Structures are given as structure tokens and as C-alpha cells.
Amino acid sequence: MPIRVLDPQVAAKIAAGEVVERPASVVKELVENAIDAGATMISVELQDGGYEMIRVVDNGCGIASSEMALAFQHHATSKINSLEDLQAVRTLGFRGEALYSIAAVAQVKLVSRTAGDLVGAYLEIADGRVLGSGARGSPLGTTVSVRHLFYNVPARRKFLKSAEVEGGRVVILMNQFALAYPEIQFHLISNGRQVFQSTGSGSLSDVLVKVLGLDMAREMIPLDPRVGQETGTLVLSHGAAGPDAFGRRIVVSGCVSQPHVTRANRQYLSFFVNRRWVQSPMLARAVEQAYHTLLPVGRHPIAVLDVAVPPDEVDVNVHPAKAEVKLLREGEVFVAVQRSVRSALTAHATIPAFSGATEQPARLSGAMPMGRLFRVPDVAATPVAGTASEAYRAAEPAEGTMGSRLPPLRILGQMAQTYIVAEAPDGMYLIDQHTAHERVLYDRLMSEHARAAVKSQLLLEPLTIELTPRQQAMLQPRLEAFMQMGFDVSPFGERTYVIRSIPVVLQGGDVIQAVLEAIDLLADEKGAPGNWQEALYITIACHGAVRAGQALSLEEMRLLVTQLEQTEMPRTCPHGRPTLLHISQAQLEREFGRR
Ligand code: ADP
Ligand code: MG
Fold this sequence. Notes:
Blueprint lengths: L7 H12 L3 H14 L4 E7 L5 E6 L9 H4 L11 H4 L11 H8 L1 E7 L6 E7 L2 E8 L4 E7 L6 H5 L4 H18 L4 E6 L2 E5 L6 H9 L1 H4 L2 E3 L28 E7 L11 E5 L2 E3 L2 H10 L12 E6 L5 E2 L10 E2 L2 H19 L10 H9 L22 H6 L14 E6 L3 E6 L2 E6 H18 L5 E11 L2 H7 L3 H6 L3 E4 L4 E8 L7 H12 L6 H16 L9 H12 L14 E5 H7 L4
Parallel strand pairs: 1-7, 11-13
Antiparallel strand pairs: 1-2, 2-6, 3-4, 3-6, 4-5, 7-8, 9-10, 10-13, 11-12, 14-15, 16-17, 17-18, 18-22, 19-21, 20-21
Helix pairs in contact: 1-5, 2-7, 7-8, 7-15, 10-11, 14-18, 14-19, 15-17, 17-18
């Protein structure tokens, strides 16, 4: 094909692809515009997850009728003037691309009125062409309605998920806006039903109650914005004068969860830089480092955190959807975040009533003179994969023997109501009753799943569970899959669900906690649908398994060990932690000086 310059309409659609990927990206751009316009109330309405219609109403400064058509032109913006302005952006938008891009791939109607105008005006545009315009009565502010998104881009439509999944993304997005702007009142209405709202009271804790629910919001510890960088400098009141009031300061504010409140993944980490929602593995690392040794392996905290830096120290123009930023003093920001989270934790955390994995090994090795023999891995510090301690490695059979199978074990007793003590021809074994049982239950679930026959049990008394808007958005489209996994969960009023049956394996476990964790795992579903189900079975196994601190009879221990022997991988739990430690006959003899 010869080289040609593309037709402007084709070019517009290609450019739009960068900005507008899905309904949630339209909502993001429109809400950002409303915030930039100084709105104190922003309402978002969706039909069919936004495919059919997205409407954003704000009470901001409005657009003058004479500028309406201009707003839709490429690179038309009122927010920056020059290249210098780009170096210190103070608004969420600055590229003048959003309205242009949205109008290239949808039918858009704009109605707006500024304070200076008595009547408002409207403009209708589709495929980049103005279809109509004129005077129109309107309250102060702007309403943008977007219909039939991607109606003219079939290639894009193909890649979109169901309306529920897309609607769920919008819930998450609105949660983030509300967290970053507690002084703005947000509403989200989906198919005529209010699914999220914030009060606009200006208090972050009020928003947290709406986003996380009252119980979880209570477990959040506020960060002290004075901790961070140069703590000696005078601090002016936050917010009033903007980041410049702090000079070159880095100010970290927000809140983090008590160490005993943990989540199965990182989706409860919300980061903002100058109140712009960003994805940042760097900030996630900084927060998690502050929790070092406080959280069990594979568990993550909840955090809502804003980093305020001078605007000229952030490059906001590095990502098509503005979801990432570049920080000039990244290292210092890291330290500031890590320090301020750590200091909040030491000041307020009710440390740690939790009898997590970090505590027990320490007690074990401290109490026993044989600490040197049972080299217990520092589970909190090591990644899940490859946490095999030396002792555990020693327990691995020599090459040529029967793979991961266990030797015949004779149960001697239980220690600390946590470990089963056993002997075998090659020495002594300590079996962790919880991880061992987890392995047993997990294997059972996986084999039942493979036969599409996960055993379910009716609860005598159904349980009810109250979900946050985002949890609801995750769960609702997957009730069917939950059913196949042994959970009968159904809607029961606004945000309440009733659980009528559970996988048999979960009997006696904390059902509510398991379901909540399972829902969190859903957000990790990326591509292959098998992954989250497996992760969910791990969660169920964990909650169904016998806990540490539970006395077991000899009979129960025998049964557990027999079941463990029959599993595929008896030496680790599904999280990768060891189920048993081995001390060989030879090691014992050496330690006692017999050899
Ligand atoms: P950008 O936000 O990057 O400037 P947009 O295409 O999103 O580009 O918007 C173009 C211009 O239209 C903005 O600069 C602003 O002046 C105006 N505008 C858009 N939405 C609103 C709104 N809700 N209220 C007031 N003005 C708006
Ligand atoms: Mg914009």
C-alpha cells in the first residue's frame, strides 16, 4: 500500500483509542473536567454499564455558549497556555483531548450554563460533527451525556467486557475520586439505582465509611501529615494554600489499616499524587515496607494515601490515561511515605493481638534449645515461592526415592496445640496442623472441582453479609460461578446478600471472612478465568482448616496425617509454606554428641 495521510475522522478514532478505552475512561475524563471546573456536586449516571449511556452532571463553572464548539476541538483547553505551564500542572486535565476523543467514538450532548449567562446552551455532536446547537435552559454547571459508546468502532466493542464488569470499574473509579476529594459530593446511579454516594462533608473518614463500610473504616489509622520529609520545617495548614505553602516539602496524608486488618491482594491500596489517582508499585512498596513483619505472608494492608509535592516536581504527561506520573524526587517520596506510615503504625496500632505466622516461629525457636536444628524460615520476610528452610529442605527425600511422598509417620503427640509430633524411620517430624489441613482441603476441593462436584452444605441458619459498593460490583456478575464452587449466595436487599449454603470443606470456618476474601480475589481476575477459582479454593481451604491452638485427639491427628499423605504435594500448603519440618536421626545424634 502506498503511504497516505489518514482521513481526519479515522485519525480521530485512532487518537481516541488512547484516551477512551472503556466506559470507565469516559467517566474518568468527564469527572476530572467537573472537578477542574470547581464543582462541589458531581453525579454520574450509567445505563448498561455505560455502553448505552453515561451522563455526568456537575455544578461547576460551566462553559460559555460561545466556547462550546471549541471545547470539542483537538488540543482545545482552558487549562494550560504554554510549555512552561505544562511543567507545573495544577488541574487534572491539560491536554484538551478528552471531549474531542469522546465525540469521535460516541454521540455526545453538552448542556451548560456559566454564572454570567441567564440561559444556558446545548451542543450535540457525533462522529466529530456538530448535529445541533442553540439556547437551552440549564442550571449553573455542565451536563455531558454520552450515548452509544464505540457505536462506530466495532473493533473496540469486541474487546469490552460485560456491562456488569464495566459498571464495576466505574464504582471503583468513583470510590477513588471520593477518597481524593472528600469535600465534593459524588453520586453514582446505575440503571436507575443509586450504587454509591459520598456526603461531600470534607472528612476523609466519612468517605471511608461509604467506601469500606463502617467496621473497616473504624480500623483505619490517620497519617500525620507532619511526618515525612524535613520534619523540622514549619507546617502550614494542609489544603488551604496548596502544595506551595509547604515550599519544597513532600506531604503525605491519608490513612492506613491496623496491622490485624489485612487483605488478600493490593486492590485496597489507593494512591494519589496531588490528588490525582495513580497506579504506583513504588508507593505500594513503600507502604508495605512500613508494615514489614507486621503482616502475614501474602497479606496486604488497606491504605488511602495522598502525596502532595510541588507541581513542578511531577510529570503528569507520561501516560495516555494519566494513570501514572513521574516524580522528580522519587527516592525521597519513598522514604517520606514509608516513614509516615511506620510512624502511624507505631503510634496507634494495637500491635499485634494477631497470632500470625511471624510470632510462632520466634516463640518456637526461642523456647527450644534446638532452635539451630529447626531452622524456621522468617516467613514474613521471604516471598511465598521457595520459603523452604534448611530443615525443610533436609526433609526432602533423596533423589531416586518416591518424589514428594511422605515416609510412614507414627504420631507421638501434639505440641503447643499447633504442631503434631511424629516419628519416622529417618527421624522426627513436626507437622503444622493448620497448613497440613489446608493442603488436604485444597486437594479435596480441586478434585471435586475437576469433577464439577464441589460438595455443598445447607446452612441451618442462613448468614447475611453486607457488601461495599465495589464488592457488590465484583460479586453480582459471578453469583453463578460461586454456586458452582459450593456457595449459594443471593441478593437480599440493597447491598445485603444472603448465604444459604457453603462448601462442605468450609464447615466450622469463618464463612463471612472467607466470602469477603473470595470477593477481593475476584478483582485480580485477569484473563484466564481458572486463576481466581483456584485462588478462591485456597482461601476456602485456609478458612476451613483447623487453626493453631486447637487441641486434637490422637485419632484426629492420625486421620489428618493419613489424609496429608494422600495429597499430591504433602510438603507445602497451597500458599507455599511448609507443612512439616524434619530432624534426622543423624542430626539428633550430632546434637547430643553421640557422634
Ligand atoms: P482538558 O480537560 O484537557 O482541558 P477536555 O477536552 O477535557 O480537555 O476539555 C476541554 C475544555 O472544555 C476544558 O479545558 C474546559 O475549559 C472545558 N470543559 C470541559 N468540561 C467542562 C466542565 N464540566 N465544566 C466546565 N468546563 C469544562
Ligand atoms: Mg479534561
